[in-house]
Amino acid sequence: MTNFSDLGLIAPLLRAVKAEGYTTPTPIQAQSIPQLLAGRDLLGIAQTGTGKTAAFTLPILQRLAANPKRPGARSARALVLTPTRELACQIHDSFAAYGRNLRLKRSLIFGGVAQGPQVSRMAGGSDIVIATPGRLLDLIEQGHVRLGGIEICVLDEADRMLDMGFVRDVRKIMSMMPEQRQTMLFSATMPSDIADLADSILKDFHRVEVTPAATTVERIGQKVLFVERQNKRRLLVDLLKGETVGRTIIFTRTKRGADRLVEQLAKGGVTADSIHGNKSQNARQRALAAFRNGRLSTLVATDIAARGIDVDGVTHVINFELPIEPEGYVHRIGRTARAGAEGVALSFCDAEEVDHLRAIEKTIRQAVPVEEAHAYHAEAVRELHRAANTNRPGGGKAKRRFGGGRQASAKRPAQGQAARKARRGARRNRGFGQAPSGQRKAS
Ligand code: AMP
Ligand 1 within 6 A of 186 CB? Predict the structure, then answer.
């Protein structure tokens, strides 16, 4: 199937999709939309960047519009549960964009802001509610929201919701809905607790798995910059003041690190703002809005906050610190190269991070090219990384895959704790070289 009209979507939705500029459905859209229109449950293994939001938003809109009904007071017909406020806002925006030619009422429910406006909006009922679990449960317990009329329910980013400790809230919310409903569960990963959750809430479901990593990663010019930790900040300022860097997201590992970096950049003459979980909802939205409309070209973010960043035209992602989880790398760099554009991802790697780099290269199944044309290139760190590659068991294969990097370890054995750590990392990464899983579909 190559176009949206083949999927069975009605004209108002086709017009909206066209207005968004989409010409071809993404794989998850092509594989899910017909099944969802037919009313089936769905298990979607997919991350952001795959087009999963439209994959569930379009069929929900169509099914609600096909059977117009006034939602009861304080009730809703469709519920989307998602882990963060930013994601909730984005999903809400997607419903608004794709539903522009339909008359369906939407409501947003999330914590960290006054509940009054959310309560009043729900008083008359709503066709679609997009909510984070904690605040939704709060409002249900106070009697402001009822779930007895839910016809369709989506759990979005289920793995993240469980990571954030929402499992009990989610199960409680699920138990309040009618048995007779359509349910979809989307998750980037499939650990056993998600598989258990899926088994308990989905019936006769269609399963779709898409792996965006390869396709997303292919469009991104990735580079690693080996640098001593104490030089990272100066290197960053140099890059940001360079001509080629446009709209940039910089990742740090911690919230404090993000704030500190914003201050340090200011001293270096670069204006930036940060977005992370300790900031108020208003401050986060202000920073994001400034970034989106171009008043601010540099945003410093932590991984959790980054889940909600969907800004087109991000030219650069800079990993000031590498993520501990290799999947986080794919997620971070996916903030650039949105919607088919190209992007650049630069990763700083110091001596303590060579293990993380190895794990990332194993996950993306390619070596990240090294950029040494900068004032702070640290050959010693690069040597550590080489040592980690060549010392791993079955190093011949690694050598080939990594573009035949020089065998550094025999002549110049890497010394000290960091090298031992790097070697331990190399041993752990024995599984390197698996074939990509590609796209799978099962019914
Ligand atoms: P998502 O995975 O839902 O976060 O979507 C990722 C991005 O892809 C969003 O910016 C969407 O606007 C965009 N998108 C979704 N579907 C399509 C499509 N069929 N063609 C082009 N872009 C799309």
Answer: no
For ligand 1, whether the C-beta of 25 sits within 6 Å is yes
CA torsion angle for 15, 18, 20, 25 (degrees, to 10)? 110
Which numbered atom of ligand 1 lies nearest the CA of 310?
A: 10
Q: Distance from CA of residue 91 to its chain's centroid?
A: 13
CB 372 within 8 A of CB 249: no
Q: How many CB atoms lie within 10 A of CB 260?
A: 15
C-alpha of residue 29 to centroid of ligand 1, in Å: 10
pLDDT (0 to 100) of residue 413? 36
Higher model confidence: residue 342 or residue 97? Answer: 97
18-27, 85-94, 394-403: segment of lowest average pLDDT: 394-403
> What confidence tens digit (pLDDT) does each residue in 392-405 have?
543 333 333 333 33
SS3 content of the chain, % helix, strand, coil (to 5): 45, 15, 35
With the most atoms of ligand 1 within 8 angstroms of its CB, the residue from 24, 26, 80, 307 to mutate is 26
* Ligand 1 atom with minimal separation from the 22 CA: 20
Average of per-residue pLDDT values in the chain:
84
Listed in sequence order, the residues at least 6 apart from 63 whose beta carbon sits closer than 8 Å to its beta carbon are 36, 37, 39, 151, 152, 182
Q: What is the mean pLDDT of residues 112-140?
A: 97
The structure's pTM equals 0.58
